[in-house]
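Marked as duplicate of an earlier ticket. Keeping the data here for the record.
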Amino acid sequence: MKRKIGVLIVDDEVLVRIGIIHAVAWEENGFEIIGEASDGESCLQMARKYQPDLIVLDINMPGMNGLQVLNRLKEEGYSGKVIMLTCYEEFEYVREALRGGADDYVLKSNLNESSILSAILRLDFNRRPEEEEPRNRKMMAEKYLRQKIEGFSFGETQELTFRTSCFCAIAGRIRDMEKIERRYEQKGMELFYRSFYSILEQALQHYQEYDVIQYTKETVGIFISFSDTGSMQEIHMRVRRLIPHIYNIVQNYLDLDMIIGVSSLHYGEEKIREAWNQAYRMLDRSFFDKKAVYFYEDLRDYYLKAGEFDGKLTEIENSLKECVVDGKTEEIRERMQEYFEEIRNGKIAEPQRIRVFCQDIVKLLQAQERNWQDAQILEILQKQESLEEMESQVYIWLDSVIPEKTDQSTNWLVRRACDYIREHYRQDISLSDIAAYLELSESYASRIFNKDMGKNIPAYINQLRIEEARELLKNTNKKIYEVATEVGYTSTTAFHMAFKKQEGITPIEYRNQGS
């Protein structure tokens, strides 16, 4: 007869221990409760004596807490499994426990047979044959889903957990996977993935119809259906609530920085690949802004005009290459500015296309000048992770190979910027307002202004405001907050800080000097 798996229950609250013992049909599932402990010291003594296969351990106990017990267990060579019991707000402890070698966790607020048993059955105690069937079925479903995603069909079908009558795809990518691999170098990535999927399961605990697939080592896919939801409006609301919830739980419990892309709603198994492509494409949106969650629905109108956008971008790209080949160096910056503006307005360009094109321009210019000394620039451009950084690197490199003339056109643009600022500095203006007025990108407008004026645009705005403030403080009896408002500051605090930074004294001290 096969030996049952021994379980030790550890919690300082007797009612919790009783609840766990009576919540699960332990014997029927091949487990045996070999003891209970109410504190950390008792747990260590019983672990040494009985060598349990599994310890269900409360994370927050008086005296020696669960984390300290876990560390002692590992130091003493305990080789069994550990599941932590925790409250929702204790995610910092959970994160530390998972890093310290805990195998899983269960929320006390969700303490029932399903949550406890599902956490335990995820662990591998030299799996029993009867447990292999659901595990194999899950693996076959994941394999089938991957085939559908990648567009392969071998004539076979496989039952999926999510219903394709109404579903969406969610793609999640872990940023800086190398950092995670370094973090789990000693404990192994198996522990990381087990913790990751356990936390995903917790985030999705109120949904029954979903499938999860490990697409790459840093990318996970979730297909979730909403056949139990009434109206379309309710479905959209549920999706918009669910995604930030997943993001926050993963970030809080595992300290993971993720990007999440979400497809629109789809209907029918033949739409699985399209749904995945939409969600996966959203992951590249982080190149254009700094958000963490992106919905395909928010960009649907732009994708409907993708052909028109692609044609216009190709036209600009070809025009730029012709400028380089024909030696029209004076037009290159203007065309590059047009190129980046089109990308910014179009919103849906592929980041790798931008990288490759910018590298092509560099190679063409290097060939024209017969100068290949700066080979590093190609690598630098390939590594850029945002459009703003890419644009900045391109302009910096262009300045080094095509020195910008302080010609009339540049001076004229800076003069226009100065005129605009002098006219509007009393209002709440910013770099984006000035760039829009000049019809330039923010980075280009900032660059030519800095170069010509020797200071940035915000500094110039502050200079004009403080100059007028000095006159008002000296020649009027207006209150400080009235002066601040009149010269363009939205708060008295900001005015005080800006005034003292430029003048070295506060507005009140300046006024008192003249009295």
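See parent ticket for discussion. The chain is about 55% helix and 10% strand.
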